[in-house]
Amino acid sequence: MPTNNMTEQSPVTDTKATAIPKVPALPDAQTVTEVKHYTDRLFSFRCTRPASLRFRSGEFVMIGLMGDPDPKTGKKKPLLRAYSIASPSWDEELEFYSIKVPDGPLTSRLQHIKPGDEIILRPKPVGTLVHDALIPGKRIWFFATGTGFAPFASLLREPQTYEDYDEIIITHTCREAGELTYGAELIDALKDDELLNEVIGEGFWKKIKYYPTTTREQSPKMGRITDLLRSGEAYKDLGVDPINPKNDRAMICGNLAFNLELKAMLEDFGLVEGANSDPQQYVVEKAFLD
Ligand code: A2P
Fold first, then answer.
1. What single-letter DSSP state applies at residue 280?
2. Which end of the chain is less packed: N or C, by CB atoms within 10 Å?
3. What pLDDT digit, counting tens, does each position of 67-103 carry?
4. What does the longest C-alpha to C-alpha distance in the chain come to?
5. Ligand 1 first shell, C-beta below 6 A
6. 257 C-alpha to center of ligand 1: Å?
């Protein structure tokens, strides 16, 4: 009979076993609680939140999985990427919205996570898409492409957004209609969110103007937001005045080319880029793409 088989020994041994501190399988491990798939390219998931994690809505953290062992040393290293936190700062869990890249080092594996699995989360939130980086204004524009919607998913559920602004315009440009689902469902759910309607004020969601567009598949509104702003079509559709530095504030989160183009457009309108240390009229951040 093996002498080291703890499970077959007396209850005394069991007591000893439970007295050994439980070592988490991963450093900074958090447990996945929910996963939703939207298209073959997009999914969202929720996980537990470390009790000590404080962040401002719109910030990002490094998350990931343990990488494969190094063929030479056999050592494993965490594989981490920057992800905007899609849940608001008051939520007891954390939510993330992710692309799936078939041969992406992290997302090719991350897309297979299930409730109960563990992910690594480095609890050091940072970022510029925060209210602190903007000076007061009347109207705020959230400009997103693809998974760049994530920080706005947080800010749209953040009471301060509605305290600071009379009007919130969220534009989301994606290739295909199915890529709009996460954002569309989230905005729709605000109407029936009892907690937010109570905390922020009944009907707070009426301040939101949502402008989803697609570029490579038919949908009610086609085109890049940049082109739609340039032609004036977006203002007409939304029934709003053109962007001006006195009243308008903006946050940009999308792919690099989009960020640069929109940044140049906002500068042309006279808006100045802000930062945590120097709040101004607009801020920009690159969406996670790999
Ligand atoms: P398009 O299909 O015309 O390239 P991606 O999935 O490649 O990150 O793109 C997400 C969305 O961003 C797509 O609808 C894409 O349009 C759009 N996009 C890409 N570059 C720009 C840009 N410079 N200005 C505005 N929209 C852009």
1. B
2. N
3. 888 899 999 899 999 999 999 999 999 999 999 999 9
4. 83
5. 145-146, 173-175, 215-216, 224, 226, 255, 257-258, 261
6. 8
Question: Ligand 1: distance of its center to the CA of 199 in Å?
Answer: 36
Measured distance CA(255)–CA(266) in Å, rounded:
16
8: which 2 tokens?
């077959």
Compute how many other C-beta atoms are within 10 angstroms of the C-beta atom of residue 204: 20
Ligand 1 center to residue 175 CA distance, Å? 7
Mean pLDDT of 183-196: 97
**Span from the CA of 180 to the centroid of ligand 1 (angstroms):** 13
**CA distances (Å), origin 167, targets 27, 112, 142, 155, 241:** 42, 38, 11, 13, 12
- Side-chain-side CA neighbours of 177 within 13 Å: the count stands at 6
Type of residue numbered 25: A
Ligand 1 nearest-atom number relative to CA 260 = 23
The distance in angstroms from the start CA to the end CA of the chain is 52
Beta bridge partners of 142: 170, 251
* Closest alpha carbon to 251 in 231, 222, 275: 275
Q: Which among 278, 289, 290 has a CA at the least distance from the CA of 130? A: 278
pLDDT digit string, tens, across residues 13-61 = 343 444 455 555 566 999 999 999 999 999 999 999 999 999 999 999 9
Q: What is the mean pLDDT of the chain?
A: 91
Q: What is the pLDDT of residue 286?
A: 87
Only one residue has tokens 């608001």, namely 88
